[in-house]
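Example 3.2
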Amino acid sequence: MPDVAEAARLLGARLAGAPVATLVLGSGMGHLVEALEDPVSMRFQDLPGFPPAAVAGHAGRFVAGRMRGRYVLVQAGRYHLYEGHPGEVVAAPVRLSGALGVDTLLLTNAAGGVDPALEAGDLVLLEDHLNLLFLSPLVGPAAEGEARFPDMTCPYDPELARLALSVAGELGITLRRGVYAALPGPAYETAAEIRMLRSLGADVVGMSTVPEVQVARARGMRCLAVSMVTNKGTGLSGDPLSHAEVVAAGREAGRRVGALLEGIVQRLPAPPQSTGKK
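Structure, written as tokens:
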């Protein structure tokens, strides 16, 4: 299992400052790492107990650097339950950010459109989610620094949402709002499942994000998440789905998400001067 405390010590020793936020990049978002100034990188597998990332489009590394003059920690890639990882592994990167003193988590993901009005390339600011994974990384003994029963009234921070909408307006980026449904995967949904999700109130569907947000909220971290719609859900179009197309569509939409994240980061307050160094 991941040794979060030791991982925080190792990664924290390499940081040049206190990150204003951690950015979690989903499929097709790796280009954002290239824009960082003075980057310092560490692969997941170089941290104790952290396995390598194994999904196409997920680099599997932490990169710290300056984004528009603000110091950030980028989590390029993530773990998924469908890879067979236990909840402790899926949640480990978020717990690492928390151990480093980061209090703001900006997440992205590639998602299928459940709302028929959504098209490939649309961006959706998450307002809430449906946990249909039937597993939580909070199961088991409460981790140090985490609430046993975290309040999920506002899993996605309203203040950060207002900031995102303001930045999107200034950049001319259309940012819709909606509810994310998390399913375990790794198969794409059937047409019947898409109809079910719509009846439950979902706008987009994916296989990540919710476990990370659960842990972040248990730690008192603020969360913002943006879904990049890479395809219409099964039954809403006649096209078959493929992961390669998801990554390609995510890459195109990811450039707008990158501009959005840069604008948000520029406006975040400076964090306490702590990087987890001992």
